[in-house]
Write a structure and sequence with these properties.
The chain is α/β, with parallel strands linked by helices and 322 residues long. The chain has a single domain, classed as Alpha/Beta hydrolase fold, catalytic domain (Rossmann fold), CATH 3.40.50.1820. It has twelve helices and eight strands. It has an eight-stranded mixed beta sheet with strand order 1-2-4-3-5-6-7-8, with helices on both faces.
Length: 322
């Protein structure tokens, strides 16, 4: 009798746990976002849009000429993060910066057929689609943080389209995406319900994250804070950011560094606390054809915090290209 009683209690506990795990998340309220705006209310006078692989992509251009630079921002950023170097870069040719899916003012689809538009593969395909649509045969890809991994994936899959790469504190050895074992969990209906709440932590913690990205946070003006917060007024930004998280994967780049034959410049701040400076040093050492520039008194965003020193490094690198 005692054993039956224990078994019954254990059974009840297991049932309760199952109910908590399967039903509990749906009991957590997910209030709608407040004070959101349509994209056309957030655009700038120089904003442009282009339809690529079924997504309306927000982009801007500067300069002209055969040499083309495509700028790929990092996680939580947008093309706004390149504001200090777009004009200087345009003295060397055409500069194009766009908002990667889930960020900025680019469309945030929540339904699609086939592959997720937020997946690493889709992000790589988008770069090539942009080049095709704008009739760009070859480009110099400039990628910061997670944007650096996108640039490298494009170079691996389409080396004939990449003249050179400039990697700015690229997230190659860290922050490469969700591990494979977590994908089934992230794709459950329970996590799909809670996901937007998790994504909204970006807004709640965005200020502190940005301060961590700078060596000298006093350089972050109110206008810079506003520029980073602006895309978080777009409808469904939280749901799209969660879909990006679900679609993320480990890059696998570490095992393929020897395959990069094109010229590469690795730039890092000497005080990067997001992608530690040591990782960029290692990256430059393991790439077969890389130059290295360490910018003093700078953090994860040297193109924003130290644009003069950033352009000095880029100018020196460009002078080596044929």
């Amino acid at each position: 009798m005692k054993k039956k009683r224990v078994s019954r209690i254990v059974g009840i506990i297991l049932i309760v746990l199952v109910l908590v795990v399967t039903i509990g998340p749906f009991l957590v309220p997910v209030p709608p976002l407040e004070n959101t705006k349509n994209i056309d209310q957030l655009t700038d006078p120089d904003s442009q849009f282009i339809e690529l692989n079924g997504i309306n992509v927000h982009y801007k251009t500067w300069g002209q000429g055969e040499s083309t630079f495509i700028l790929l921002h990092g996680f939580g950023a947008s093309l706004f993060s390149w504001r200090e170097v777009t004009e200087p870069l345009s003295t060397f040719g055409t500069v194009i910066a766009y908002d990667r899916p889930a960020f900025g003012l680019t469309e945030r689809p929540l339904e699609w057929a086939g592959e997720s538009p937020y997946s690493p593969q889709a992000q790589t395909n988008l770069v090539i689609a942009l080049m095709d649509e704008l009739d760009i045969e070859k480009a110099i890809l400039v990628g910061n943080s997670a944007g650096g991994t996108v640039a490298m994936q494009v170079a691996l899959l389409h080396p004939e389209r990449v003249q050179a790469i400039i990697l700015v504190d690229a997230a190659v050895f860290a922050g490469g995406g969700a591990p494979a074992w977590s994908t089934p969990i992230l794709k459950t209906p329970q996590m799909d319900h809670l996901g937007p709440l998790i994504a909204r932590q970006l807004q709640a913690q965005g200020t502190e994250f940005l301060k961590t990205a700078f060596h000298d946070p006093s350089k972050i003006t109110p206008d810079i804070f506003e520029g980073y917060q602006k895309p978080l007024q777009a409808k469904n930004w939280d749901k799209a950011l969660w879909q990006l998280t679900v679609a993320s994967q480990e890059s696998g780049l570490v095992e393929r560094l020897s395959e990069f034959a094109m010229p590469i410049l690795v730039i890092t701040g000497d005080d990067d606390r997001i992608v530690p400076t040591e990782q960029s040093l290692r990256l430059a050492d393991e790439l077969p054809n890389a130059m290295l520039s360490v910018i003093p008194q700078s953090g994860h965003l040297p193109h924003e915090e130290s644009p003069i020193e950033f352009m000095q490094a880029v100018t020196k690198f460009l002078s080596t290209l044929k």
